[in-house]
Automatic annotation (TrEMBL):
<keyword id="KW-0732">Signal</keyword>
<feature type="region of interest" description="Disordered">
    <location>
        <begin position="27"/>
        <end position="51"/>
    </location>
</feature>
<dbReference type="InterPro" id="IPR050490">
    <property type="entry name" value="Bact_solute-bd_prot1"/>
</dbReference>
<protein>
    <recommendedName>
        <fullName>Family 1 extracellular solute-binding protein</fullName>
    </recommendedName>
</protein>
<feature type="signal peptide">
    <location>
        <begin position="1"/>
        <end position="28"/>
    </location>
</feature>
Amino acid sequence: MRFKTTGKQWGALTLAAMLAVSAGCSGAGESGSGNSNPSADTGKGASEAPAGGSTSAFELWLGWSATINNNSLIQKYWKEKEPGVEVKLEATQGDATTALNLRINTGGFKDAAIFSRSETVKSAMDRSKLLMPLEQYFTMPEKYPGLASIPKKYLDRMKDKDGHIWSIPTWFDQNPDDPWPGWSSVGWTVRSDLLEQTGMKAEDLATLEGVEAFLKKAAGLKDASGKPILPLSFLMDPNSTLGWSDENAVMSAFGVTTGGAGIEKKGGEFVFAYDDPNYKAAYHWLNRMYREKLIDPEVVTNKKEQYQEKNKAGRIAMNVGSFWNIPASAWETLDGPTEPGWYYQVIPFPKVPGVEKIGSNQVVNPYPGYDVYINKNTKNLEAILTFFDYTLQPKPEQQHVINEGPPGLYWNWTDGPLGKWKFTDEAYKKDRNAGDVAQKAKVTPELYMTSSFSSKWYPWWNTAEAEKKGAAKTVQFTEAIAKMGGVRNAHSHDLVQTKQGGVMEKYAPELENIRKEYRGKLLMAKDDAQFEAAWQAFRDALEKRGHWSEVKQEWRESYQADIQANGEF
Protein backbone atom coordinates (compact mmCIF):
# COMPACT_ATOMS: atom_id res chain seq x y z
CA MET A 1 0.00 0.00 0.00
CA ARG A 2 2.93 2.32 0.05
CA PHE A 3 4.61 4.30 -2.65
CA LYS A 4 8.28 3.73 -3.26
CA THR A 5 10.63 6.30 -4.35
CA THR A 6 11.51 4.11 -5.55
CA GLY A 7 13.97 4.53 -7.36
CA LYS A 8 11.73 3.43 -9.14
CA GLN A 9 10.63 6.83 -9.16
CA TRP A 10 13.36 8.45 -11.17
CA GLY A 11 16.24 6.15 -10.82
CA ALA A 12 18.34 6.50 -13.94
CA LEU A 13 21.94 7.45 -14.42
CA THR A 14 22.02 11.19 -14.75
CA LEU A 15 25.27 10.86 -16.21
CA ALA A 16 22.60 9.45 -18.16
CA ALA A 17 21.10 11.20 -15.64
CA MET A 18 24.05 9.46 -14.26
CA LEU A 19 22.30 8.33 -11.23
CA ALA A 20 18.95 9.57 -10.56
CA VAL A 21 18.34 11.77 -7.60
CA SER A 22 15.85 10.01 -5.39
CA ALA A 23 12.94 12.33 -5.66
CA GLY A 24 10.99 9.61 -4.31
CA CYS A 25 9.63 11.58 -1.56
CA SER A 26 10.25 14.96 -0.09
CA GLY A 27 7.99 17.68 1.07
CA ALA A 28 6.16 20.30 2.94
CA GLY A 29 3.22 22.39 1.94
CA GLU A 30 0.23 24.41 3.01
CA SER A 31 -1.98 23.03 5.69
CA GLY A 32 -5.05 21.29 4.34
CA SER A 33 -8.59 22.09 5.33
CA GLY A 34 -9.70 18.52 5.75
CA ASN A 35 -12.91 19.20 3.84
CA SER A 36 -14.53 16.29 2.05
CA ASN A 37 -14.33 18.45 -1.06
CA PRO A 38 -10.58 18.72 -1.69
CA SER A 39 -11.08 21.75 -3.94
CA ALA A 40 -13.24 23.69 -1.51
CA ASP A 41 -10.66 26.35 -0.73
CA THR A 42 -9.13 26.91 -4.15
CA GLY A 43 -11.76 29.30 -5.44
CA LYS A 44 -13.86 28.87 -8.55
CA GLY A 45 -11.11 27.99 -10.96
CA ALA A 46 -10.89 25.42 -13.69
CA SER A 47 -10.72 22.57 -11.19
CA GLU A 48 -14.31 23.08 -10.08
CA ALA A 49 -16.54 20.40 -11.59
CA PRO A 50 -19.50 21.57 -13.62
CA ALA A 51 -22.93 20.68 -12.27
CA GLY A 52 -23.87 17.15 -13.23
CA GLY A 53 -20.32 16.23 -14.21
CA SER A 54 -18.64 16.74 -17.58
CA THR A 55 -18.09 14.91 -20.81
CA SER A 56 -14.64 16.47 -21.31
CA ALA A 57 -12.03 13.77 -21.73
CA PHE A 58 -8.45 13.10 -22.76
CA GLU A 59 -6.10 10.16 -23.17
CA LEU A 60 -3.10 9.89 -20.85
CA TRP A 61 -0.24 7.60 -21.86
CA LEU A 62 1.68 6.23 -18.87
CA GLY A 63 5.41 5.76 -19.32
CA TRP A 64 5.46 2.51 -17.33
CA SER A 65 3.79 -0.88 -17.33
CA ALA A 66 0.50 -1.10 -15.45
CA THR A 67 -2.76 -3.00 -15.31
CA ILE A 68 -5.42 -0.63 -16.62
CA ASN A 69 -9.15 -0.58 -15.94
CA ASN A 70 -10.60 2.63 -17.30
CA ASN A 71 -13.80 2.02 -15.37
CA SER A 72 -12.10 2.29 -11.98
CA LEU A 73 -14.00 3.96 -9.15
CA ILE A 74 -11.50 6.80 -8.84
CA GLN A 75 -11.65 7.57 -12.56
CA LYS A 76 -15.44 7.51 -12.30
CA TYR A 77 -15.22 10.08 -9.51
CA TRP A 78 -12.99 12.31 -11.63
CA LYS A 79 -15.45 12.14 -14.50
CA GLU A 80 -18.70 12.56 -12.58
CA LYS A 81 -17.67 14.76 -9.67
CA GLU A 82 -14.31 16.45 -9.54
CA PRO A 83 -12.66 17.81 -11.62
CA GLY A 84 -15.27 16.75 -14.19
CA VAL A 85 -12.81 15.13 -16.58
CA GLU A 86 -12.73 11.63 -18.02
CA VAL A 87 -9.16 10.34 -17.98
CA LYS A 88 -8.57 7.42 -20.34
CA LEU A 89 -5.33 5.64 -19.51
CA GLU A 90 -2.95 3.63 -21.66
CA ALA A 91 0.11 1.91 -20.20
CA THR A 92 3.49 1.26 -21.77
CA GLN A 93 4.46 -2.32 -22.50
CA GLY A 94 8.08 -3.32 -22.07
CA ASP A 95 11.00 -0.88 -21.92
CA ALA A 96 9.71 2.68 -21.60
CA THR A 97 12.43 4.32 -23.71
CA THR A 98 12.00 1.82 -26.53
CA ALA A 99 8.23 2.27 -26.41
CA LEU A 100 8.63 6.06 -26.47
CA ASN A 101 10.90 6.03 -29.52
CA LEU A 102 8.55 3.66 -31.33
CA ARG A 103 5.53 5.81 -30.53
CA ILE A 104 7.27 8.99 -31.63
CA ASN A 105 8.31 7.39 -34.90
CA THR A 106 4.76 6.22 -35.60
CA GLY A 107 2.86 9.43 -35.02
CA GLY A 108 3.21 10.07 -31.30
CA PHE A 109 0.68 10.05 -28.47
CA LYS A 110 -2.76 11.58 -28.91
CA ASP A 111 -3.22 13.96 -25.97
CA ALA A 112 -0.82 13.73 -23.04
CA ALA A 113 1.94 11.48 -21.73
CA ILE A 114 3.50 11.20 -18.29
CA PHE A 115 7.01 9.80 -17.82
CA SER A 116 9.44 9.56 -14.94
CA ARG A 117 11.77 12.55 -15.27
CA SER A 118 14.71 11.59 -17.41
CA GLU A 119 17.05 13.47 -19.69
CA THR A 120 16.69 10.62 -22.17
CA VAL A 121 12.92 11.06 -22.29
CA LYS A 122 13.19 14.86 -22.35
CA SER A 123 15.61 14.76 -25.27
CA ALA A 124 13.43 12.32 -27.22
CA MET A 125 10.36 14.48 -26.61
CA ASP A 126 12.22 17.63 -27.66
CA ARG A 127 13.37 16.06 -30.90
CA SER A 128 9.90 14.78 -31.72
CA LYS A 129 8.60 18.33 -32.39
CA LEU A 130 5.22 17.07 -31.12
CA LEU A 131 5.06 19.17 -27.97
CA MET A 132 3.13 22.23 -26.94
CA PRO A 133 4.92 24.97 -24.93
CA LEU A 134 3.17 25.39 -21.58
CA GLU A 135 4.78 28.29 -19.73
CA GLN A 136 1.74 30.57 -20.02
CA TYR A 137 -0.48 28.21 -18.02
CA PHE A 138 1.67 28.49 -14.89
CA THR A 139 0.94 32.23 -14.60
CA MET A 140 -2.87 32.14 -14.61
CA PRO A 141 -3.80 31.76 -10.90
CA GLU A 142 -7.40 32.81 -11.39
CA LYS A 143 -8.05 30.03 -13.88
CA TYR A 144 -5.43 27.44 -12.93
CA PRO A 145 -4.54 27.96 -9.25
CA GLY A 146 -3.03 24.50 -8.94
CA LEU A 147 -0.63 25.03 -11.85
CA ALA A 148 0.20 28.52 -10.58
CA SER A 149 1.13 27.10 -7.17
CA ILE A 150 4.10 25.10 -8.53
CA PRO A 151 7.22 26.54 -6.83
CA LYS A 152 8.94 28.99 -9.13
CA LYS A 153 12.39 27.45 -8.64
CA TYR A 154 11.19 24.22 -10.25
CA LEU A 155 9.77 26.03 -13.26
CA ASP A 156 12.82 28.26 -13.68
CA ARG A 157 15.09 25.23 -14.08
CA MET A 158 12.78 23.85 -16.77
CA LYS A 159 12.96 26.84 -19.11
CA ASP A 160 14.85 26.49 -22.38
CA LYS A 161 16.98 29.27 -23.84
CA ASP A 162 13.85 30.90 -25.27
CA GLY A 163 11.96 30.76 -21.99
CA HIS A 164 9.68 27.90 -23.00
CA ILE A 165 8.59 25.13 -20.65
CA TRP A 166 7.67 21.91 -22.43
CA SER A 167 6.04 19.85 -19.67
CA ILE A 168 3.93 20.08 -16.54
CA PRO A 169 6.10 18.98 -13.61
CA THR A 170 4.56 16.60 -11.07
CA TRP A 171 5.54 14.60 -7.98
CA PHE A 172 7.54 17.35 -6.34
CA ASP A 173 7.84 18.64 -2.81
CA GLN A 174 5.33 21.37 -2.10
CA ASN A 175 7.98 23.13 -0.01
CA PRO A 176 11.42 22.80 -1.63
CA ASP A 177 13.09 24.41 1.40
CA ASP A 178 11.83 21.78 3.84
CA PRO A 179 11.92 18.49 1.94
CA TRP A 180 10.42 15.29 3.27
CA PRO A 181 13.19 12.67 3.57
CA GLY A 182 11.15 9.98 1.87
CA TRP A 183 11.33 6.23 2.00
CA SER A 184 14.89 5.22 2.82
CA SER A 185 15.26 1.52 2.12
CA VAL A 186 18.85 0.80 1.07
CA GLY A 187 20.74 -0.71 3.97
CA TRP A 188 21.90 -3.86 5.76
CA THR A 189 19.29 -6.24 7.14
CA VAL A 190 19.84 -9.23 9.41
CA ARG A 191 17.62 -12.04 10.68
CA SER A 192 17.71 -11.49 14.45
CA ASP A 193 16.69 -15.09 15.20
CA LEU A 194 19.64 -16.45 13.23
CA LEU A 195 21.93 -13.86 14.79
CA GLU A 196 20.88 -15.18 18.19
CA GLN A 197 21.53 -18.76 17.08
CA THR A 198 25.14 -17.83 16.25
CA GLY A 199 25.60 -16.44 19.74
CA MET A 200 26.18 -12.93 18.40
CA LYS A 201 24.40 -9.62 19.00
CA ALA A 202 23.52 -6.71 16.72
CA GLU A 203 26.37 -4.61 18.12
CA ASP A 204 28.81 -7.31 16.99
CA LEU A 205 27.94 -6.34 13.41
CA ALA A 206 29.21 -2.76 13.80
CA THR A 207 32.32 -3.54 11.74
CA LEU A 208 32.94 -5.34 8.47
CA GLU A 209 35.05 -7.81 10.42
CA GLY A 210 32.09 -8.55 12.69
CA VAL A 211 29.81 -9.03 9.68
CA GLU A 212 32.24 -11.55 8.19
CA ALA A 213 32.36 -13.45 11.48
CA PHE A 214 28.56 -13.66 11.50
CA LEU A 215 28.38 -14.82 7.89
CA LYS A 216 30.82 -17.64 8.60
CA LYS A 217 28.78 -18.80 11.58
CA ALA A 218 25.49 -18.45 9.68
CA ALA A 219 26.87 -20.73 6.96
CA GLY A 220 26.68 -23.59 9.43
CA LEU A 221 22.97 -23.13 10.19
CA LYS A 222 19.97 -24.89 8.64
CA ASP A 223 16.51 -23.53 7.84
CA ALA A 224 13.26 -25.11 9.06
CA SER A 225 13.32 -27.66 6.23
CA GLY A 226 16.92 -28.66 6.86
CA LYS A 227 18.45 -26.73 3.95
CA PRO A 228 21.68 -24.79 4.55
CA ILE A 229 21.22 -21.11 5.36
CA LEU A 230 22.53 -18.72 2.71
CA PRO A 231 24.68 -16.27 4.71
CA LEU A 232 24.36 -13.18 2.48
CA SER A 233 22.26 -12.25 -0.53
CA PHE A 234 20.92 -9.36 -2.56
CA LEU A 235 18.99 -8.81 -5.78
CA MET A 236 21.03 -8.17 -8.92
CA ASP A 237 18.02 -6.79 -10.72
CA PRO A 238 18.55 -6.52 -14.50
CA ASN A 239 16.43 -3.35 -14.42
CA SER A 240 18.55 -1.62 -11.78
CA THR A 241 20.77 1.40 -12.41
CA LEU A 242 23.91 2.79 -10.83
CA GLY A 243 21.61 4.98 -8.75
CA TRP A 244 19.30 2.19 -7.66
CA SER A 245 20.76 -1.24 -7.04
CA ASP A 246 21.17 -3.49 -4.02
CA GLU A 247 24.96 -3.38 -4.31
CA ASN A 248 24.73 0.28 -3.32
CA ALA A 249 24.30 -0.73 0.33
CA VAL A 250 27.83 -2.13 0.15
CA MET A 251 29.06 0.88 -1.81
CA SER A 252 27.77 3.18 0.94
CA ALA A 253 29.63 1.25 3.63
CA PHE A 254 32.78 1.66 1.56
CA GLY A 255 32.20 5.43 1.28
CA VAL A 256 31.14 5.48 -2.39
CA THR A 257 28.34 7.85 -3.38
CA THR A 258 25.89 6.40 -5.87
CA GLY A 259 22.88 8.63 -5.11
CA GLY A 260 22.10 11.89 -6.83
CA ALA A 261 24.32 12.16 -9.89
CA GLY A 262 26.70 9.47 -8.65
CA ILE A 263 29.14 12.27 -7.92
CA GLU A 264 30.46 13.53 -4.59
CA LYS A 265 32.58 16.53 -3.77
CA LYS A 266 35.62 15.42 -1.79
CA GLY A 267 38.42 17.77 -0.86
CA GLY A 268 37.17 20.38 -3.31
CA GLU A 269 37.18 17.93 -6.21
CA PHE A 270 34.32 16.00 -7.78
CA VAL A 271 34.71 12.24 -7.55
CA PHE A 272 32.64 10.08 -9.89
CA ALA A 273 31.43 6.74 -8.53
CA TYR A 274 33.31 4.61 -11.05
CA ASP A 275 36.54 6.49 -10.29
CA ASP A 276 36.28 6.18 -6.52
CA PRO A 277 38.96 3.63 -5.46
CA ASN A 278 36.48 2.14 -3.03
CA TYR A 279 34.09 1.24 -5.84
CA LYS A 280 36.65 -1.39 -6.74
CA ALA A 281 37.27 -2.23 -3.07
CA ALA A 282 33.56 -2.84 -2.48
CA TYR A 283 33.33 -5.32 -5.34
CA HIS A 284 36.56 -6.95 -4.23
CA TRP A 285 35.00 -7.57 -0.82
CA LEU A 286 31.87 -9.02 -2.43
CA ASN A 287 34.08 -11.20 -4.62
CA ARG A 288 35.93 -12.51 -1.57
CA MET A 289 32.64 -13.28 0.18
CA TYR A 290 31.47 -15.10 -2.96
CA ARG A 291 34.65 -17.15 -3.22
CA GLU A 292 34.33 -18.10 0.46
CA LYS A 293 30.79 -19.33 -0.29
CA LEU A 294 29.25 -16.73 2.01
CA ILE A 295 27.00 -15.29 -0.73
CA ASP A 296 24.15 -17.14 -2.40
CA PRO A 297 25.85 -18.92 -5.34
CA GLU A 298 22.81 -18.11 -7.50
CA VAL A 299 22.91 -14.36 -6.74
CA VAL A 300 23.81 -13.41 -10.32
CA THR A 301 21.06 -15.50 -11.92
CA ASN A 302 18.27 -15.17 -9.34
CA LYS A 303 15.11 -13.62 -10.71
CA LYS A 304 13.24 -11.30 -8.38
CA GLU A 305 10.64 -13.97 -7.62
CA GLN A 306 13.32 -16.50 -6.69
CA TYR A 307 15.12 -14.03 -4.44
CA GLN A 308 11.91 -13.11 -2.67
CA GLU A 309 10.87 -16.72 -2.24
CA LYS A 310 14.20 -17.55 -0.60
CA ASN A 311 13.63 -14.72 1.85
CA LYS A 312 10.06 -15.70 2.62
CA ALA A 313 11.15 -19.30 3.16
CA GLY A 314 13.76 -18.20 5.68
CA ARG A 315 16.80 -19.22 3.63
CA ILE A 316 18.82 -15.97 3.99
CA ALA A 317 20.62 -14.69 7.12
CA MET A 318 21.62 -11.22 5.93
CA ASN A 319 20.55 -8.96 3.05
CA VAL A 320 22.17 -5.90 1.57
CA GLY A 321 20.12 -3.51 -0.55
CA SER A 322 16.57 -2.24 -0.56
CA PHE A 323 14.22 -3.89 1.90
CA TRP A 324 11.45 -3.48 -0.68
CA ASN A 325 13.15 -6.26 -2.61
CA ILE A 326 13.01 -8.76 0.27
CA PRO A 327 9.98 -7.84 0.12
CA ALA A 328 8.43 -5.84 2.98
CA SER A 329 5.31 -8.01 2.81
CA ALA A 330 7.42 -10.72 4.49
CA TRP A 331 6.82 -8.94 7.80
CA GLU A 332 3.92 -6.60 7.06
CA THR A 333 1.48 -9.51 6.88
CA LEU A 334 2.41 -10.87 10.32
CA ASP A 335 1.10 -10.27 13.83
CA GLY A 336 3.98 -11.93 15.59
CA PRO A 337 6.95 -14.32 15.28
CA THR A 338 5.10 -16.92 13.21
CA GLU A 339 7.26 -16.68 10.08
CA PRO A 340 10.92 -15.86 9.31
CA GLY A 341 9.91 -12.41 8.04
CA TRP A 342 9.14 -11.27 11.59
CA TYR A 343 12.83 -11.39 12.52
CA TYR A 344 14.22 -9.01 9.89
CA GLN A 345 16.06 -6.12 11.52
CA VAL A 346 17.98 -3.22 9.96
CA ILE A 347 21.46 -2.54 11.30
CA PRO A 348 23.85 0.41 10.83
CA PHE A 349 26.22 0.29 7.88
CA PRO A 350 29.26 -1.64 9.13
CA LYS A 351 32.44 0.35 9.65
CA VAL A 352 35.00 -0.33 6.93
CA PRO A 353 38.69 0.32 7.72
CA GLY A 354 39.86 3.61 6.23
CA VAL A 355 36.35 4.89 5.48
CA GLU A 356 35.54 8.03 7.47
CA LYS A 357 32.14 8.83 5.98
CA ILE A 358 29.38 6.67 4.53
CA GLY A 359 28.69 7.23 0.84
CA SER A 360 25.27 8.59 -0.14
CA ASN A 361 22.94 6.08 -1.77
CA GLN A 362 19.91 8.37 -1.73
CA VAL A 363 19.58 12.08 -2.35
CA VAL A 364 16.50 13.82 -1.03
CA ASN A 365 15.47 15.82 -4.05
CA PRO A 366 12.42 18.08 -3.80
CA TYR A 367 12.48 18.68 -7.55
CA PRO A 368 9.85 17.09 -9.82
CA GLY A 369 10.07 13.36 -10.42
CA TYR A 370 7.68 13.19 -13.39
CA ASP A 371 6.83 15.26 -16.46
CA VAL A 372 3.54 15.53 -18.34
CA TYR A 373 3.96 16.27 -22.04
CA ILE A 374 1.09 17.58 -24.18
CA ASN A 375 0.71 17.01 -27.90
CA LYS A 376 0.52 20.32 -29.75
CA ASN A 377 -2.29 18.91 -31.87
CA THR A 378 -4.51 17.76 -29.03
CA LYS A 379 -8.16 18.73 -29.23
CA ASN A 380 -8.54 18.24 -25.48
CA LEU A 381 -6.20 20.85 -24.02
CA GLU A 382 -8.72 22.27 -21.56
CA ALA A 383 -9.51 18.83 -20.15
CA ILE A 384 -5.78 18.14 -19.65
CA LEU A 385 -5.10 21.46 -17.93
CA THR A 386 -8.20 21.15 -15.77
CA PHE A 387 -7.19 17.69 -14.58
CA PHE A 388 -3.61 18.58 -13.69
CA ASP A 389 -4.70 21.83 -12.10
CA TYR A 390 -6.79 19.61 -9.81
CA THR A 391 -4.06 17.06 -9.08
CA LEU A 392 -1.51 19.77 -8.27
CA GLN A 393 -3.48 21.60 -5.59
CA PRO A 394 -0.87 22.35 -2.90
CA LYS A 395 -2.47 20.43 -0.03
CA PRO A 396 -0.56 17.88 2.08
CA GLU A 397 -3.24 15.25 1.53
CA GLN A 398 -3.65 15.80 -2.22
CA GLN A 399 -1.57 12.79 -3.30
CA HIS A 400 -3.91 10.61 -1.23
CA VAL A 401 -6.97 12.33 -2.68
CA ILE A 402 -5.71 11.52 -6.17
CA ASN A 403 -4.97 7.92 -5.23
CA GLU A 404 -8.05 7.08 -3.17
CA GLY A 405 -10.57 9.92 -3.65
CA PRO A 406 -11.46 12.75 -1.24
CA PRO A 407 -11.96 12.13 2.49
CA GLY A 408 -15.45 10.88 3.20
CA LEU A 409 -15.74 8.85 0.00
CA TYR A 410 -13.74 5.65 0.48
CA TRP A 411 -11.58 6.75 3.42
CA ASN A 412 -11.65 9.32 6.19
CA TRP A 413 -9.70 10.78 9.07
CA THR A 414 -9.84 8.88 12.35
CA ASP A 415 -8.56 11.70 14.58
CA GLY A 416 -9.00 14.88 12.54
CA PRO A 417 -7.52 16.35 9.34
CA LEU A 418 -3.86 15.52 8.72
CA GLY A 419 -3.92 12.84 11.40
CA LYS A 420 -4.49 9.13 11.14
CA TRP A 421 -6.82 7.75 8.47
CA LYS A 422 -8.47 4.50 7.45
CA PHE A 423 -10.62 3.11 4.66
CA THR A 424 -14.30 3.44 5.42
CA ASP A 425 -15.75 1.57 2.43
CA GLU A 426 -15.27 -2.16 2.98
CA ALA A 427 -15.87 -3.13 -0.66
CA TYR A 428 -13.30 -0.59 -1.85
CA LYS A 429 -10.85 -1.70 0.82
CA LYS A 430 -11.23 -5.36 -0.10
CA ASP A 431 -10.34 -4.79 -3.75
CA ARG A 432 -7.69 -2.17 -2.93
CA ASN A 433 -5.81 -4.50 -0.61
CA ALA A 434 -6.52 -7.79 -2.36
CA GLY A 435 -2.91 -8.22 -3.45
CA ASP A 436 -4.17 -8.71 -7.00
CA VAL A 437 -3.32 -5.99 -9.52
CA ALA A 438 -6.51 -6.60 -11.49
CA GLN A 439 -8.63 -6.20 -8.35
CA LYS A 440 -6.78 -3.04 -7.36
CA ALA A 441 -7.20 -1.62 -10.88
CA LYS A 442 -10.97 -1.89 -10.44
CA VAL A 443 -10.87 0.78 -7.75
CA THR A 444 -7.82 2.99 -8.40
CA PRO A 445 -5.19 3.53 -11.11
CA GLU A 446 -2.78 4.74 -8.37
CA LEU A 447 -1.81 7.97 -10.11
CA TYR A 448 -0.30 9.57 -6.99
CA MET A 449 2.63 10.70 -9.15
CA THR A 450 0.37 13.17 -10.97
CA SER A 451 0.23 15.11 -7.71
CA SER A 452 2.82 16.41 -5.22
CA PHE A 453 3.77 15.60 -1.64
CA SER A 454 4.44 17.26 1.69
CA SER A 455 6.28 16.67 4.95
CA LYS A 456 3.21 17.91 6.79
CA TRP A 457 1.33 14.71 6.05
CA TYR A 458 2.29 11.54 4.22
CA PRO A 459 -0.48 8.92 3.97
CA TRP A 460 1.50 5.73 4.34
CA TRP A 461 3.25 6.98 7.46
CA ASN A 462 -0.07 7.99 9.01
CA THR A 463 -2.36 5.11 8.25
CA ALA A 464 -4.54 3.57 10.94
CA GLU A 465 -5.25 0.82 8.43
CA ALA A 466 -2.53 -1.56 9.48
CA GLU A 467 -4.29 -4.67 10.69
CA LYS A 468 -1.05 -6.55 11.34
CA LYS A 469 1.59 -5.53 13.86
CA GLY A 470 4.32 -6.23 11.35
CA ALA A 471 3.19 -3.31 9.18
CA ALA A 472 4.69 -0.88 11.69
CA LYS A 473 8.15 -2.33 11.06
CA THR A 474 8.40 -0.78 7.59
CA VAL A 475 8.16 2.80 8.84
CA GLN A 476 10.53 1.97 11.70
CA PHE A 477 13.04 0.56 9.24
CA THR A 478 12.87 3.51 6.86
CA GLU A 479 13.19 6.06 9.66
CA ALA A 480 16.21 4.22 11.04
CA ILE A 481 17.99 3.92 7.67
CA ALA A 482 17.43 7.63 6.97
CA LYS A 483 19.54 8.46 10.03
CA MET A 484 22.46 6.13 9.25
CA GLY A 485 24.35 8.53 6.98
CA GLY A 486 23.54 7.24 3.51
CA VAL A 487 20.86 9.87 2.83
CA ARG A 488 21.49 13.55 2.18
CA ASN A 489 19.73 16.55 0.65
CA ALA A 490 20.37 17.46 -2.98
CA HIS A 491 23.14 19.82 -4.05
CA SER A 492 23.47 21.68 -7.32
CA HIS A 493 25.83 19.04 -8.73
CA ASP A 494 23.05 16.47 -8.39
CA LEU A 495 20.82 18.39 -10.79
CA VAL A 496 23.06 19.03 -13.79
CA GLN A 497 21.10 18.50 -16.99
CA THR A 498 22.38 16.38 -19.81
CA LYS A 499 23.41 18.34 -22.89
CA GLN A 500 21.04 17.53 -25.72
CA GLY A 501 22.92 15.75 -28.48
CA GLY A 502 26.05 15.59 -26.35
CA VAL A 503 28.32 12.70 -25.41
CA MET A 504 26.56 12.13 -22.09
CA GLU A 505 23.25 11.58 -23.81
CA LYS A 506 24.87 9.40 -26.46
CA TYR A 507 26.91 7.14 -24.20
CA ALA A 508 24.94 7.01 -20.95
CA PRO A 509 23.01 3.87 -22.00
CA GLU A 510 26.27 2.16 -22.91
CA LEU A 511 27.83 3.12 -19.58
CA GLU A 512 24.95 1.44 -17.83
CA ASN A 513 25.31 -1.64 -20.05
CA ILE A 514 28.98 -1.82 -19.09
CA ARG A 515 28.19 -1.60 -15.38
CA LYS A 516 25.73 -4.48 -15.63
CA GLU A 517 28.07 -6.54 -17.81
CA TYR A 518 31.03 -6.35 -15.46
CA ARG A 519 29.39 -6.44 -12.02
CA GLY A 520 28.79 -10.18 -12.40
CA LYS A 521 32.32 -10.76 -13.69
CA LEU A 522 33.79 -8.86 -10.76
CA LEU A 523 31.63 -10.70 -8.27
CA MET A 524 32.33 -14.21 -9.59
CA ALA A 525 36.07 -13.90 -10.35
CA LYS A 526 37.81 -17.14 -9.33
CA ASP A 527 40.82 -15.46 -7.77
CA ASP A 528 42.49 -12.07 -7.32
CA ALA A 529 44.23 -12.30 -10.67
CA GLN A 530 40.95 -12.84 -12.50
CA PHE A 531 39.36 -10.05 -10.50
CA GLU A 532 42.14 -7.64 -11.51
CA ALA A 533 41.74 -8.66 -15.14
CA ALA A 534 37.98 -8.09 -14.97
CA TRP A 535 38.53 -4.71 -13.31
CA GLN A 536 40.97 -3.59 -15.98
CA ALA A 537 38.56 -4.77 -18.69
CA PHE A 538 35.80 -2.77 -16.98
CA ARG A 539 37.94 0.37 -16.95
CA ASP A 540 38.92 -0.14 -20.58
CA ALA A 541 35.28 -0.60 -21.58
CA LEU A 542 34.28 2.59 -19.74
CA GLU A 543 36.79 4.51 -21.78
CA LYS A 544 36.55 2.82 -25.17
CA ARG A 545 32.84 2.01 -25.33
CA GLY A 546 31.51 4.58 -22.87
CA HIS A 547 33.84 7.49 -23.71
CA TRP A 548 34.17 8.04 -19.98
CA SER A 549 36.68 10.90 -20.05
CA GLU A 550 34.60 12.81 -22.60
CA VAL A 551 31.44 12.27 -20.57
CA LYS A 552 33.06 13.62 -17.42
CA GLN A 553 34.48 16.63 -19.23
CA GLU A 554 31.08 17.49 -20.68
CA TRP A 555 29.51 17.11 -17.23
CA ARG A 556 32.01 19.57 -15.74
CA GLU A 557 31.25 22.08 -18.50
CA SER A 558 27.51 21.62 -18.00
CA TYR A 559 27.94 22.04 -14.25
CA GLN A 560 29.74 25.34 -14.67
CA ALA A 561 27.04 26.58 -17.05
CA ASP A 562 24.33 25.44 -14.64
CA ILE A 563 25.71 27.20 -11.57
CA GLN A 564 26.27 30.36 -13.59
CA ALA A 565 22.60 30.29 -14.56
CA ASN A 566 21.05 28.95 -11.36
CA GLY A 567 23.63 29.37 -8.61
CA GLU A 568 25.34 26.77 -6.47
CA PHE A 569 23.94 25.11 -3.37
